[in-house]
UniProtKB/TrEMBL annotation:
Organismal lineage: Bacteria, Bacillati, Actinomycetota, Actinomycetes, Propionibacteriales
One Pfam family of this chain: ABC2_membrane
Family: Belongs to the ABC-2 integral membrane protein family.
TM stretches of this protein: 44-67, 73-96, 130-148, 154-181, 188-207, 244-264
Protein's UniProt name: Transport permease protein
Major location category of this protein: membrane
UniProt topology in membrane: Multi-pass membrane protein
InterPro entries tied to this protein: ABC2_TM, ABC2_TM_bact-type, ABC_2_transport, Nod_factor_ABC_transporter
Location(s), subcellular: Cell membrane; Membrane
Keywords attached to this entry: Antibiotic resistance, Cell membrane, Membrane, Transmembrane, Transmembrane helix, Transport
Domain ABC transmembrane type-2, residue spans: 43-270
Length: 270
């Protein structure tokens, strides 16, 4: 008797490394997936649509007279500051949504696919750049409606919006890391808020730093949020690409260089 051995099924040899072009393609595919989710759950857009409308009017009219003497004088200070604050708040949702997806098991499917490990993390963050764009545009729109006149003109405002989107994408890596190390969505939100509030309020977003006690002023001067907001003011109010813009981009690059590898390493170990 002869024994017939079963034929081996055809196998596909997978490349040991994913090319850069494939990584970009996979990231954009997952970004499109995240965008579709936004369209089907519009409530996730409330923090970048409703919040800018309320916060811009509220901060301007409540604090304008106390800090700058009148609302008109306060707007060049507060409008760029509110853009930084709103974008940073939107970054918190990135980590919370990531933790929710992890708990639902959808990322277990991504991990067994022959795709770049960074793509499932960077894809939703690319989609969130649309949220930062909406928040920045609405904040400027409300500010102009209540009397803000940016000295930088259209080009300065456009540059400020672009910088805000880049900064939001960069800072979101911090909260992506929190989403990976947190045990549940509530815990991630709690950790993120503990980081977000000091970064926002211990900055130059709402008041000049020279009015703070010296230790707080020193922290605010090196706060990456302060660097971004100073650059936003230079672009929007004066239309100038100053050294603050360069330092803001350097700060964003440092944040990405630290937290992107940490996030990918953590994702591989999960």
């Amino acid at each position: 008797m002869t024994t017939l051995s079963p034929e081996r099924p055809d196998t596909v040899d997978l490349a040991p490394h994913v090319s850069l072009s494939d990584t970009i393609s996979q990231t954009m595919t997952l970004a499109w997936r995240a965008t579709v989710k936004m369209r089907r759950s519009l409530e996730v857009m409330f923090d970048v649509t409703i919040q800018p409308l309320i916060f811009t009017a509220m901060f301007a009219y409540i604090f304008g007279g106390a800090i700058s003497g009148d609302v008109g004088s306060y707007l060049p200070l507060i409008i760029p500051g509110l853009i930084g604050q709103t974008v940073l708040t939107a970054c918190v949702a990135t980590g919370v949504q990531l933790r929710t997806d992890l708990d639902s098991g959808v990322f277990d499917r991504f991990k067994v696919l022959p795709i770049a490990r960074i793509a499932p993390l960077a894809g939703p963050m690319v989609a969130d750049m649309l949220r930062y764009l909406i928040a920045a545009v609405l904040t400027f729109t409300v500010g102009i409606a209540i009397g803000y006149r940016p000295g930088g003109g259209f080009a300065g405002v456009a540059g400020a919006i672009l910088l805000a989107v880049v900064a939001g994408w960069s800072l979101a890596w911090i909260f992506t890391f929190f989403g990976l190390v947190g045990r549940n969505a509530q815990g991630v939100q709690g950790i993120s808020l503990l980081v977000m509030f000091p970064l926002t309020f211990l900055s130059n977003a709402f008041v000049p730093t020279d009015t703070m006690p010296r230790p707080l002023e020193a922290f605010a001067e090196v706060n990456p949020v302060s660097l971004v907001i100073t650059a936003l003011r230079d672009l929007a109010n004066r239309g100038e690409v100053t050294g603050a813009v360069g330092w803001a981009l350097v700060g964003c690059a440092v944040v990405v260089a630290i937290f992107a590898p940490l996030s990918v390493r953590r994702f591989k170990k999960m």
